[in-house]
Amino acid sequence: MRTRALLDAAGVAFATHGFERASLNSILAEAQFPKSSFYHYFGDKTTLFERVVESGMEVLRASVTPPNIDSLDQDSFWPHIRELGDQLQIAAISDPRTQIVGRLLHAADVPTSSTLAALRHSTTNWLTHALERGRDLGQIDRDTPLELQLHLLIVVLTEVDRWVLAHNADTDSTSAALRALERLLVP
């Protein structure tokens, strides 16, 4: 229970102030977590950061199941992609740890994180596969080179994610952002 309070306090501090400006002493005080126990269990602020990200990713993995891209056809492609967007929105609304992961993913002053690196890598691979499948099904524009399309998609998704997080994942802003993203890709 004390560890959960520490991870929650640290997540809010890192997402609000950035990694460098988040005060370890303030985090420990907020969580009522003894400094000696912190150094015994975590060792340093960077390890705490990684544990915060891991905690949020556990919630995200339990809440969101991306569709199997290979099983999608012309009729199911966009409905399943929209369902993924809905799952992400529900996860962001229902557990603040998922929003913290999103905020930390886009933060400029975060330490090297193997969990965030793995998230970026798996997301890029999934998006590449989704673009290829959507193009094969005629559901995504084929006139734009795939590499450029992937780059644009990542940039736009990053901005959509920032927009949604800034608007606390409310339904209207999420729907508007996802419709804009879909218009970018549809032939």
Share of β-strand residues? under 5%
Report the sheet with the most strands, covering strand number, pairing sense and barrel closure.
Answer: none
Number of strands: 0
Shape: elongated
Order of helices and strands: HHHHHHHHH
Distance between the termini: 51 Å
Say what oligomer this is: single chain
Q: Catalogue the unreliable spans.
A: none
Verbal overview:
- The structure is a single chain.
- By secondary structure, the protein is mainly α.
- The protein is built from nine helices and no strands.
- The chain has helices spanning 2-17, 24-31, 35-41, 45-63, 77-94, 96-106, 114-136, 146-166, 171-185.
- Helix 5 packs across helix 6 (96-106), helix 6 crosses helix 8 and helix 7 (114-136) crosses helix 8.
Any chance you could write out the topology, listing elements then pairs?
Blueprint: H1 2-17, H2 24-31, H3 35-41, H4 45-63, H5 77-94, H6 96-106, H7 114-136, H8 146-166, H9 171-185
